[in-house]
Design a protein that fits this description.
The protein has about 150 residues and is of the alpha+beta class. Helices cover about 30% and strands about 25% of the residues.
Length: about 150
């Protein structure tokens, strides 16, 4: 029988996947690209909503990330037999702490109003094509088996 407390495990699992070096965009680490985007646009954070369909006005590459993690979130709920009605809201927030640090947080709010949170501070410099090697075997968030 499913329990709402399992939402904390989903937060931890998805956030670990999100900050993994296997989470790439165009062959480069996604967090480096997010760090560069935040620096260039002079905004403090990005949000990826997991319980709703992503906004198509987002940048295309970030739309792919949003859609991938939205589907992964739905898959985790299904595997654990957690009804969608138990989730009021879910999102991943990426906030710039400094030039070389990002705070990545995953939030899930249950239908009872309880918030489940996982957060990690990650050292990551802004994406620089001249300092990084491009992953060539497969593109996209590739750290989930069977997707």
């Amino acid at each position: 029988m499913a329990r709402r407390s399992e939402l904390q495990g989903i937060c931890n699992d998805l956030l670990d996947s999100f900050i993994s070096r296997c989470n790439d965009l165009g062959g480069y680490w996604a967090l480096g690209k997010f760090q560069l985007f935040l620096k260039r646009k002079a905004v403090q954070e990005l949000q990826f909503h997991l319980s709703t369909t992503p906004d198509p006005k987002n940048k295309v590459s970030y739309l792919l990330t949003s859609e991938y993690y939205r589907q992964a979130f739905q898959r985790h709920l299904k595997i654990r037999k957690i009804p969608h009605s138990w989730v009021q809201e879910g999102y991943i927030k990426v906030r710039q702490k400094s030039e070389s640090e990002l705070m990545c947080c995953m939030y899930v709010t249950s239908d009872l109003g309880r918030e489940y949170v996982a957060d990690r501070c990650v050292l990551v410099r802004p994406h620089n094509i001249y300092l990084e090697n491009r992953r060539s075997d497969r593109y996209g968030p590739a750290n989930s088996k069977g997707f």
